[in-house]
Amino acid sequence: MLIEAVIFDLDGVICHTDQFHYQAWKAVAGQLGIPFDEHINARLRGVSRMESLEIILEQSEKNYSQEEKEQLAGEKNRIYQSFLCKMTPTDLAPEVSRTLDVLRGMGLRLAIGSSSRNTALILHRLGLDELFDAVADGTQIKRSKPDPEVFLLAASLLGVRPSRALVVEDAAAGIQAAKAGGFPAAGIGGAAQILDVDFSIETIAELVPICIQGR
Ligand code: BG6
Ligand code: MG
Q1: Which of 11, 18, 137, 170 does the annotation list as catalytic?
Q2: Which residues contact 120 (CB under 8 A, 6 or more apart)?
Q3: Which of 37, 141, 190, 209 is deepest in the core (most CB within 10 A)?
Q4: Three-state secondary structure call for residue 156
Q5: Residue 145 CA: which ligand is closest?
Q6: Which of 19, 43, 49 is the best mutation target for the ligand 1 pocket, counting ligand atoms within 8 Å of the beta carbon and taking the most?
Q7: In what order do the strands lie in the sheet with 109-113?
Q8: Separation between Cα atoms, residue 190 and residue 198, nearest integer Å
Q9: Which helix or strand (DSSP H or E) is residue 184 part of?
Q10: Cα angle: 166, vertex 108, 178; to 5 degrees
Q11: pLDDT per residue as tens digits for the range 10-67
């Protein structure tokens, strides 16, 4: 397999913002008296804010109007952003930063492919605004993962064909999106166990030998 580029999911791969999503949704669900746990949370990984809300509201007997849903999603995002605003470059794991440097040093093109509309804010807080050759995110797409749109956009911004761009994901929806777009996929943590991935990794540093083999 020839690898020319790596497209990273953001939340749960580059940084631990997946935990902030969880805490923010838990607060909103708690206010509404709706049960919410890690199992339901796993279904929210990779999917858009409004789709996440719909999944949470499956546990409710009440019907919410569109206006109420927008208000709830807005409330979740306010809580979520209050966590994001406390992040600094020291929150970037040294292993992530090292791995990105090594991959760049190998001449690979690097991109972000995230469903998040907060991508620019997160990259800025972590001091990563300038690091990636391309950023495709939730503000630029119509269909979120498992649709491949965000990864196809990242590949096209990089000028690399999907079969040569390795997607790195922590979410089942993200791995499905990669496969649907014709990308090889590396699954990190739990997601790697549930779906058919090309590479199953525990830590991001394991990408280095994979990419060396793909040169
Ligand atoms: C994805 C997360 O990266 O972004 C999802 O895995 C989240 O859990 C989605 O719902 C949208 O995020 P945001 O920041 O636009 O609310
Ligand atoms: Mg993720």
Answers
A1: 11
A2: 129, 135, 137, 139
A3: 141
A4: helix
A5: 1
A6: 49
A7: 134-136, 109-113, 5-8, 165-169, 185-188, 199-201
A8: 14
A9: none
A10: 15
A11: 999 999 999 999 999 999 999 999 999 989 999 999 999 999 999 999 999 999 999 9
